[in-house]
Amino acid sequence: MSLISVETLQPNITNIELGYVEMQSGKQFPADPDEESDSELPAAKIDFNEVVIDESSIKINYSYPFKNPRTATYECRTGFTRKLLIKIIRAKYHAIYNEELQLNKILADEMKAKGLKTGYQHGTLGEWGIYGHCIGDLVLHSMQLKNGVWELGIDS
Q1: I want to staple 124 with a disulfide (CB 3.0 to 4.6 A). Which of 94, 108, 117, 130 is the partner?
Q2: pLDDT tens for residues 61-82?
Q3: Is residue 130 within 8 Å of 66, Cβ to Cβ?
Q4: Dihedral sign of CA atoms 74, 78, 81, 83 in order
Q5: How far is the CA of 34 from the CAs of 56, 87, 124, in angstroms?
């Protein structure tokens, strides 16, 4: 039996490993801290300063854990390092959560007055609709290019 690589099956997909980054704290691990130490990504192999996207403009789709995903465009004439990508993505998630929580607090007070439930398990009530997870649950680990848009690999 022969194995076919993902690149052979889907030539328009590119994958970037980012290590494991806690979205709330920004703490970085070269591999999943919950897995055995024989990881595919030992610390010596992850260069956070390496330019991993040499394009000057990229689109990132923010879809998890949101009911209403959106895409944002970023510019950097020198390309994007892992460190810069992580910084951009974490900043966007913090902005989304802050915006949603401020709006949700206002709307939640109104909903509680009517006896209705609110919270992540029910989804926030803003434009993004955060569903099921607080930012402290999220760990960024990779990005995958699909049809010109970067999709984020995020676990919870």
Answers
A1: 130
A2: 999 999 999 999 999 999 999 9
A3: yes
A4: negative
A5: 35, 23, 29
The residue with tokens 């022969």 is 2
Identify the pLDDT of residue 131.
Answer: 84
Phi and psi at residue 87, in whole multiples of 5°? -60, -45
User: What tokens appear for 52 in the block?
Assistant: 């991993």
Place of tokens 């390309």: 79
Instruction: Record the tokens describing residue 67, joined without a space.
Output: 């009911």
Alpha helix locations (H) across the chain? 6-9, 82-113
All residue ranges of the chain with pLDDT < 50 are: 1-10, 37-44
Whole-structure pTM over 0.85, yes or no?
no
> How many Å apart are CA 7 and CA 136, to the nearest integer?
33
**Cα–Cα distance, 35 to 60 (Å, whole number):** 28
Q: What angle do CA 71, 77, 58 make, to 5 degrees?
A: 20
Q: Which is nearest to 15 in space by CA: 146, 148, 140, 155?
A: 146
- What are the residues whose beta carbons fall under 8 Å from the beta carbon of 139, sequence distance 6 or more? 20, 21, 22, 23, 154, 155, 156
Report which of 13, 44, 14, 23 is spatially closest to residue 141, judged by C-alpha positions.
23
